[in-house]
Amino acid sequence: MNRKVIPFDQNGEFHFNQGLKKTEQNKKQAALKSFHKAFELDQNNLAYLSQYAYLLAENGRGAEAEHILINAFIQHQYDAEFYFILSQLYIIMNDPNKAFLFGVQYVQHEPDSGYDEELEQMFEVSIQDEDEVEREAIRFTGQHLFQHLFMNARIEEALDFLSTIPESIQEEREFRNQKAMAALFLNRYEEAHELLEQLLQEDRTDMHALSHMTLLYYHTGEEEKYRTFLKKLEVVQPLDDDDRFKVGLVLNFLQQYERSYELLFPLFKKQAFVSFQLLHALSHASYHIGHLEESQMFWERMQTFHQVNELYSPWKRHEATQRIADLEVFYLKDDDPYMRLLGLYKIYNVVPRDAILGHEVWETIESLEDYEKLYISFLFQGLKLVRLGRMHKGLEAMRRAGYEEEEDQLAWIETFHALYENKVELEDIGAFAAATLYFHQRGRRITKKSLVDDFDTSLYRLNKALDKVKQI
Predict the structure, then answer these.
(1) What is the band of 151 on the pLDDT scale with cuts at 50, 70, 90?
(2) What are the φ and ψ backbone dihedral angles of 397, each rounded to 5 degrees?
(3) What DSSP line would sit under 186-229, residue for residue?
(4) 206 and 197 in contact (C-beta within 8 Å)?
(5) E strands of 94-208, at which residues?
(6) Is the dihedral of CA 411, 416, 421, 425 positive or negative?
(7) Which of 54, 78, 79, 80 is nearest to 65 (CA)?
(8) Are 62 and 88 in contact (CB under 8 A)?
(9) Taking 50 as the threshold, does the pLDDT of residue 5 lie above it?
(10) How far apart are CA 244 and CA 127, in angstroms?
């Protein structure tokens, strides 16, 4: 018997309706999958998105739902409908303060929606001073959205968002602190210093400004001022959870892990400020004070907010830090300047690259020759240098071709400098690096053909390089 197959396009609407049916049948996990599928197929459909977020929250995944909604809010250029969706989410999450204030923001944008009456009945409030409540809603939602952007490394966007709120609110202490923090992390130190100096003149006990100024002095290398401010942070007992969160994060960044853990772990226990930033800091702090399983737990929880490669985990970062320390001893302490240059190159290739930040190797680097310090500036600060740039290009060409042995790399550094001193035109760096290897066979059979292939050059250019190298 022939059966006619009817093609069926399972689009977003199909999965959404399936989700509604499964919700009615109280099959929440199955409904969640259907709503997620609908949302994946049409991410601009706010009905799909909101139902998916609401069901996530009902299943105890409220923080994840909030993260998804705020990201979508930003992608939709702050569509006011999201104030309503977030207000409803916070009702599910049993967070009346957020639910009410996001709701007030929605009413300000959609005064004819009738949601103001619903809010008054739901929260049994009678709004007397509408202007003040509206300002508090702008203030609260502004801080909340700024923090979300900032914690997800979208700092320019965070500043852009701040510029959209009324200037009178932007001038309040909390918002000036946020501007200073953003300027600091964008390396706009003068701007940050000016803001923080003013804040601390007004209130010397402002923990946020103290934290940010400590970070600023750390970044700008003002050691004495940094130590003075760090002592203040270490001895002061923050007054509230917000201060604990801020100071704990700063101390974590400054590698004061034990004190950071003391401040941040209670916030996690009471589920306050649970975010990518908190979990990231706790993963690093717990690792460094010996709570290794706990560190992995925090790292895994963090992935629900933002996927981060394991290379950046505290245990991989620790391996990278140790690798840098080993390279420092073996290469940077050597009397041979070419060994030191090679050591800097090898340190540059340690991943994650930012493992060098705050590392004790900088003390050794400070004692190196000016030429070697220039190479460091080239590697880590983007300084444009012709001579060292060409040497580096040769090392990179060798690495890509699979020649990473110390003797090969040192042979190139030595050959390069000899060529440079003899004023040889170094146009095709790959060909010169290949020629160096051809003259340093060391028992290997390295043919011209293999070098032409490995270094993406031509036989003519290789032969020309060989002639130049032979003459030095």
Answers:
(1) low
(2) -65, -40
(3) TT-HHHHHHHHHHHHHH-TT-HHHHHHHHHHHHHHT-HHHHHHH
(4) no
(5) none
(6) positive
(7) 54
(8) no
(9) no
(10) 32
What is the distance between the alpha carbons of residues 303 and 415, in angstroms, rounded to a whole number?
A: 47
What is the model's pLDDT at position 84? 95
Q: What is the pLDDT of residues 57-116, one digit of tens each?
A: 998 888 789 888 988 888 888 899 999 999 999 999 988 889 999 999 999 999 988 898
Least confident of 126-130, 303-307, 443-447: 126-130
Distance from C-alpha of 218 to C-alpha of 227, rounded to nearest angstrom: 9
> Residue 407 is which amino acid?
E
The residue with tokens 């007030």 is 104
Nearest to 90 by CA among 68, 65, 115, 114: 65
Place of tokens 């994840």: 64
The one-letter amino acid code at 131 reads D
Computed over every residue of the chain, the mean pLDDT equals 89
Token pair belonging to 325: 């320390």
Q: Which two tokens stand for residue 72?
A: 């979508």
